[in-house]
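Run folding on both entries below.
>entry_1
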Amino acid sequence: MVGEAKTDRLRSNTIGPWGLAALAIGITSPAMGLYGQWGPMQVAAGPITPLIFIAAMLLTLPTAISYALLNRHAPSSGSASTWLWISVSPALGFLSGLAMITYFAMATVAQPLIFALFFRDFIALIGLPVADKIVLIVGVFVATIPVGVLGLRGVEASIRTAVMLMVVETLVVLALSATILAVKGSVPGAINLSPFDPAMATNGLAGFWAAMILGALGFCGFDVVSTAAEEAKAPREYLPKAILLTVVGITIFWAINAWVFTLAVAPAAVVEYTAQGLTAVTPLAQMYWGGGSLAIILTAFTGVTAVYISCMQGTSRLLFTLARHQLLPSWLGRLSGEGHVPRHAIIILLAATVTLDVVTLLILDNGLDSFVWWANGLVFFATLTFLAVNVANIAYFWRRSDVRFNVIGNLLVPLIGVLLNAYLLYAAFFQTLWNSDASTGRSVVVGCVLLFAIEIAVVAYMRLFRPHLFRREPPLCVEQGR
């Protein structure tokens, strides 16, 4: 085919340490972790959002350590799929790969929806009389077009753009928090540590776990750097650092700014904004900046775009990796141009994203509910992926004779990760969501369980009728270190 690259390998030595950091931070997003999660988290649990972010980090940290250890020894763009293929069984590795693709694909689908919410705020701010649903659908397309253009140009262009966007959004968030503290500083007792007090929780344990779903959502995607192993410079050195520094650094940023935001506005007002389908940070910014709140909307655009870019990069690389192994349709495993871009994987991913977003908006008739539906769903598949990585940490290092098995790093830490993620899956997903409303709760549980059952059936079919594929080497494992 004209324009197709002659190699089936992604372009190596392309992404340096700053690019890897940008990829990891870009998908978690300093601004959007607050803009998208802060309001709904406070509605769920009460004005203790800094504690929720910290608790979500503690839940995520054992898994991050497992990722770091595995990447230090055997970095792979196949990530959990490769590690389980090697250490447990090829079938389980394939299933993990499908779950991981679903996780990143759902994260990709969620981004245009949150973009569309801020696009609606922008249209309202400039006074254009356009129907709400039409604005949201247009916003989905506006979000997707530049991401598609950048993705098809290659990973370097995408990451450079993500870095610039993240710098801008981070500075605006810090400026808003500084303004709030300056205003509150003149009011006696207005600046306090009550958002860090568990006694301020208003909805008990159920509210805490409902908020923890969103807290965990904030960290979903930090592992996207694993999928860049084939394109990274010195992956064994830089991948573990990018993962651990991202998890700890983004937690500090979110906790401090969530503390300031929580002090800035009454809890009842946050509940009211969220009930109206608004992102609470926009009216908050209007309170302190007036017309300057436009800066929040604009940085929401840049923040979502950075996340969207990272999600698109991670998902398309996973599709490419499994397709090259013939576990997915082979046309998804083709590369194009000098940059070795998985063009077909990117195009089909973005087309599916737009289609699913529009369908969700038409069914749920609410932009915020549509975003929450996909956000809740991706937490299910992210948790399955995190469980798989912790199991892989134990099995991989236990079975290899050329590395020393560390009881703390390769047994205790991943066991804690397994227990924490299993409990999150039970308490936050099956229990809390199942007992919540049908539109964004019970339907998510049913949909995710059915989808996972289909993936199990696909693996069983492939294992039965194409067994030779499971006797091959795993989907791209970078040369193992010592």
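>entry_2
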Amino acid sequence: MLTLSPALNGVVLGSILLLFSLGLTLIYGVGRIVNFAHGALFSAGALAGAWIAGAGYSFWLALVAAPIRIGLVGHLLDWGVLARIRDRPMVDSLLPPSASPC
């Protein structure tokens, strides 16, 4: 039992890191945008789930409601910010708005 727990923890952590890296690869591969907000949205989803569960609601409700809420935030972020730089050169997604040459 003592060796099973660290192995299971390693599989869980590896799965989380795999999902995180697959999300970054998918965003870059499809949209050709380097999106550093991915980690912030991942953390906000975890905090939203903890807040919902801490407010006295069911863990299962938090497990469903937090990704939906953060998914809507991500959709608004894509619509409001990323859609404006999607068809621009790659370096424009890395520069602040005041430094872009256009």
